[in-house]
Amino acid sequence: MKKRFMIVAAAILLAPGFGAGLANAAPAAPQQEDEHSRFSEEDRAAFTDAKIAGLKAGLKLTPAQEKNWPAVEAAIRDNAKARAARWAEWRENAKEPEGQRNVIEMLQRHAKMLETCAGELSKLSNAAKPLYDSLDDSQKRRFGMLLHAIGKHHGDHWGHHWKSEADAGE
């Protein structure tokens, strides 16, 4: 159960709304870049708000569980801000002409990004643990499915195929 939670949480961090994908290692196709460049900071904030609201609404928290929600929400928002900063940095690096890119520097940037994502994932899992531990079985199942749903499209987009028990029957 913990492993599946960590995988789903990783998908969230890697999703454009919450984390960075492997795209930091290679330039995006023009269509992908155009899609992301259409999102303003206000758009990103609105989508983050919607994802958080959807997660919270789907959990149907009790008043006692609500006490653990602010830490989860703060971690998600912090990760979203950090992801947006990484995306902006990646876009700047992608402007560099392909022939002038240093492979070692790209590997070092990618390693740094993965370390950063690991730290953010750790913060999110630490923030979510008290809430998750307070959930009943149906809420835990929904928590996993809702996190999966938020990150599924973007996880597949970046070349990852995140699976949950819900996907096992598909």
Can you characterise this structure?
- The protein has helices at residues 2-14, 30-37, 41-59, 63-66, 69-94, 103-134, 137-157, 165-168.
- The chain has one domain.
- Helix 3 (41-59) runs antiparallel to helix 5 and helix 3 packs antiparallel against helix 7 (137-157).
- It is elongated, with a radius of gyration of 17 Å.
- With 170 residues, the protein is mostly helical.
Structural class, please?
Answer: mainly alpha
Distance between the termini: 20 Å
- Please state roughly what percent of the residues sit in beta strands, choosing from under 5%, 5-15%, 15-25%, 25-35%, 35-45% or over 45%: under 5%
**What global shape is seen?**
elongated
Average of pLDDT: 74
Major sheet size, sense and barrel closure: none
Unreliably modeled segments: 16-31, 153-170
Helical residue percent band: over 70%
Number of helices: 8
- If you compute it from the alpha carbons, what radius of gyration comes out, rounded to the nearest whole angstrom? 17 Å
The total beta strand count reads: 0
Domain module tally:
1
